[in-house]
Amino acid sequence: MLALVVAGCVAAQRYAVVRPGLDCDRATRVAYRAMRELGYRVTELVPPEGERPGVIRGEKETPEGTLRRGAVRIACSGAGAELQPIEDTPFSDFAFSRGFDYSFTNLLALPDVSAPRAASGLEVQVHALERFEARLDLGGVPTQGDAVAMRIVVRNETDRAVTVDPADVDVVAADGTSAAPLAGAALEAAIAAGPAGDRVRAALLRKQRVAPHTTVSGFLVFPPGTYREARLALTDVETGETEGFVTPVE
Description:
The chain is about 20% helix and about 40% strand. It contains six helices and 13 strands. It has helices at about 1-5, 25-35, 95-110, 130-140, 185-190, 195-200, and strands spanning about 15-20, 40-45, 55-60, 65-75, 80-85, 120-130, 150-155, 160-175, 180, 210, 215-220, 225-235, 240-250. The strands form three sheets. It has a five-stranded antiparallel sheet, with helices on one face. Strands 8, 9, 10, 12 and 13 form a five-stranded antiparallel sheet that branches. Strands 6-7-11 form a three-stranded antiparallel sheet, with no helix packed on it. A hairpin with a 7-residue loop joins β2 and β3 (about 55-60).
């Protein structure tokens, strides 16, 4: 505690999250998601390894224009995981610690991989993999040259089969320009060498049928950019009718 205060940071033990039996990898992934949910841009992620604690650091700009920082120390053992939020000032109101505690607890109750959870109808989710998240989920960054890997999830809770086709997917940037998924030589050039790239290549979204009450998912890779929404069309197998979706890129 003394070392943290001297460094200009402070940890409140009452906000430590102690989870007996929690897998260390899952604790790290959920902590990352909690930081993002609180609006923090992750600037450093060191997963715990053996007896060495890990840390996630992030920062965000407040409405007043100031930069606020926060960190979480993650310690793991055979008995479970302990996560300790760390404030960026010794005179903190512990808003970050309280928020992290609440967000982590809520996210821990959800599936480890965020997925659409529609009770009925068709639902689409498009999620851009940020580099730290890719390291957690895939063991590394799967693309090169700033190409953007996105996970596409389609849940069909209807009684009719539909078809999903990458040719019917595009994404839209903040300036209104759109981009289609990379294909052919451009796709191969954008996928990085190594296990993470191999995992994306093996799980690329293909044109396929989505049977009633099933979910399919896969990756698409897009040109470099910051995208705000995705447009996707699903086709009813029996009637040939197409239903369009516009969804935020998460």
